[in-house]
Fold this protein.
Amino acid sequence: MKKIWAHVIVAALSVLIFVGCAGLKSKVPPGAVPRPETAGSAKVKPPVLTREEAILRAKQIAGVSYTLWFGLDRDNPDFEGRLVAIFELRNRPKDLAHGLFIDFDGGRIHSLKLNGNALEIGPERYNGRRVFFKGSEIQPGMNRAEISFGHSYGTTELGLNRFVDPQDQNVYIFSNIDAQGAQFVFPCFDQPDLRASFELTVETPDNWTVITNTKERENVRVDGRMSWAFPPSSKLSTSVFALHAGPYSFKKSDADGIPLRIFIRKSEQARLSLLTNAKEWFELTRRGLEFFDLNFAYPYPYSKYDQVFLPELETGTIAGAGAVAFSEKYLFGGQPAALPKARALDQERADLIFHQLSHMWFGNLVTPRWWNSLWLYEGIADFMATWAQSGEGAVMSGNAEQIWARFLREKKRKAYDHDRIEGQKPLEIPVAEADGPRAGLGSGDTGKITAILKQLRFYMGEDEFRDGLQRFFIKSAIRNAGIAEFLKAMGEASGEGLAGWQRAWLQTTGVNTLRADWKCEQQEVTWKRKTKIISKISEFRLLQSGGVVLRPHRTEIALFDLDSGARKLRPRETLAISYSGAETQVRALVGKKCPDFIFPNYNDHDYVRVELEPRALNFAQQNVSRFAEPLMRQLLLTTLWDSFIDKQLSAAQYFDFAMAFLREEKDPGLVDWTLETLAGPEAAGPLLNSFGPAEFSRLGTFLLRSYKATASGSELHAIWREKLLKAPPQVLASPELAKEAARLFQLK
């Protein structure tokens, strides 16, 4: 099992990733130096800043700026710092009945001044979590707080962390901020809507490089050490502060004048120089910047874009404005590309690159006012990352069909399953305290947000959706905004209010079910004096059910004809239509030639489970492999699996269908997903629970024969092997199958 070194993402897609995509485990990996549990230091848990406290403090002060000096050393388990915080009192001093506080968790205060007056430091002044100022000590207008402080490094926690490279004993410092993590680095007003500029000076050993939110202004040698000076940043939330330092090697590039840099540990320098992955990483970054510039119509908001690689961040990334940290596995992994794990890593790499780039706008340029909007920013970043890869944005050359099919099976399916569980919370819920912004934000939620945003894009229209994004940035850049501001911009772009859409989609739970119900009649048609009998649609309805509320949707209906001469099925025609309520008449299809098959969520724009009526269900079982588009095949696969779960199909029917499909299918993603429903240790439970020895033997025989029939070294071969090795023991329980598996895999 891999040992964990540090944190995040996805997440956030992710989850998750603006604000750091964190979620670090407390396990201390090799090379990481534990944070001492000494008097005055706190366990690494964010203090509970309540929403009410944050609202009050935001009303009291404005115009915040921080001038910071940090002293970082190679061997010291602690770091030292000095802070000058400037802030403006917005209210009269008498309104500060309970004073004002600055957040600083688990540190040490050496000296403290406010407006030039030295203040005594005691438990009432600093309680280990907050530095308190009395109302009488704060003057009208501008105030200046000067604080000399110290703090211990962590290992994989919020704050500044220290890692010792076991290969060469070099030391690296990295920040992990996320929500409420800046206060573990320096005293600050640690809430997202008190944006501030940051001006840093960092003193380090002479062979170190320092990376922060802005590009260095100068670095000079002073008494055998390096002093790095950085210009003031734009107004940022404390949650996107970044500070990384160490003897990094780096590569440089640019994207239309934006400096791009990749930083890697010195011990990995030789490996980096031999890889093409750095060039590919830069190319993906350039394409992402182009995509977001095109769709947001707002220039990249920072002076550079740095990407720092660290060993085994737990969930992939640590975010920051203009400076993002990634796990090294995404740079060095991915070979050979034929293996399923390598393919998955390549896809995850692209997801993370575009997700983090999206956060430069959604999350950094515009930041949540409070943590109850975090789901929105994570969902937008996830949606934009998928959109960027799909090729639909005119920048990437990706296969939209493959990208959205992968999204359906890996994320949207989790959302459907999650949403069907009783007691789930809606997306838009109050978050009372700052230690709970990610509570309940799981992979199911992230997939649902992304899927709902895809539905909103189709509901509004792509051009209108893009216009809404652009309006949002025009009004909210370098500010804080939540769901109200986002939907207001979208409503203005669409020409209609979205309050009803918001109530239905964001404030309720559950997933709706959609069924197409149609009838055909024989009609006489005369053409050139010849009469034919043609079957035409005489009635067509969309029937909606399920969920807490029947929502307003927009979907695409596809009509298919079974032409014996055609090898692959493609829609004869499609129709985009809005529907709501229990029944919607679709008059535009009445009079059309009766098709052999109709699917009411073509291209998967809608967030809805499709239920097939009996004749369509039978057609799908017999013809899934004939559909040309991988997304359409994936839609039918998931629909048929749901039909089994809902007892429309028996276990025997699904089993026969799945094996027949797998004999024909060559798409690795579709094969992998279908095999998971047959033999996955968890996913296949509903099916395997109905099996007896005969069915298990039949399944084991099928898996072994298919594995042997697949080309050795191919991705499909690796998928069949993986599923065989992970299959429940009953699958290979018979002596003959067990012996054959042992021979193939050299098992004991």
The longest strand covers residues 530-545.
